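User: I'm writing a tutorial on reading structure tokens. Could you give me a worked example: one chain, its sequence, then its tokens, then a sentence or two explaining what the tokens reveal?
Assistant: Sure. Here is the example chain.
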Amino acid sequence: MLKTYHLSRSSHSEVMYRSESDLIIGFNYLIYSALETDSSILADGFIPTHHHQIARCDSPEELNKRHRYAYTRYFNAKYHRKGSLGERKGFILELNGLYHTQTALTYVIRQGLHHGYTSTPFEYPYCSVNAYFRKELGRSDNPVLIMDEKRHRFFPRNAKMPSEFRMAENGLLLREDVLDTSYVESVYVSPRNFLFQMNRISNDKIINDQISESSSPPITLDAIEKGAPDFNPAKVFIDEAGRVNHNIMNDIELCHIIDDLILPAQYFKEGQDSSIYLLPENKRRELGNRIWQETRMARSSGSLFSGRIITESQLKRCLVI
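And here are its predicted structure tokens:
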């Protein structure tokens, strides 16, 4: 019998998704893993250090395992890396009741907002927020699609995906095609309530509604983000109010500077494979010290880090030190 679960997997010592293409592959491989396990994905949210999904399935452990294995193989091949990536088992929580499920869905869908990537949930492209109530919310349904002969680049080797699953030109499977949006829309009941939940400030009423309905422990920000690196509940309330600090550099931006601008130009010869994992640890620490000093001194517009804020823990995981 299918049950509904919240699943999450994090990486503390290194970034799991170093680029936008990694975020795309991560989602596509999740859908592949769902097909392999007869699971249904309701919602998702991917950021560089971890990802969340709400799924209906028989075995959440198997779904997590297959996704981790498929994505790790891709990541290791791309970055010349070895070994497991992120938590082996991840975090799994069974959801019971309307409020329980709706709260978990809302927290997962609002990943971009809660982690300070965007000022509203709808701006963040690596979550499922724009897949629901598309007609009622005036969403365009005419994306530029990739040519069929290029689709295989964005799936595991020998994987076959249903032809009705459309793929955007950047390789991302269209979420409105591959998620169980009807189920999610039935949970929210109406587009009006969906918009209300997307813009709602987390408060005690959300917890009390869950307690009144079910004996299961209520879903809270602390519970849903259990184990997420650098998670600060106090900052989430600031972000929910729309007061996102855009001077803070996110992990994707920092990894882009390291992977695409610094490493090829300063550490690897033209034509060589370039990866942070191919750089000796002493060189990575040396680079980390240099970046740290530059971010503290950067004032001119010519600096890669001018006016941007990074944290020490962020720098360490992006450099894998």
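What the tokens reveal: Residues 6 and 54 are 5 Å apart (CA to CA). The mean pLDDT is 91.
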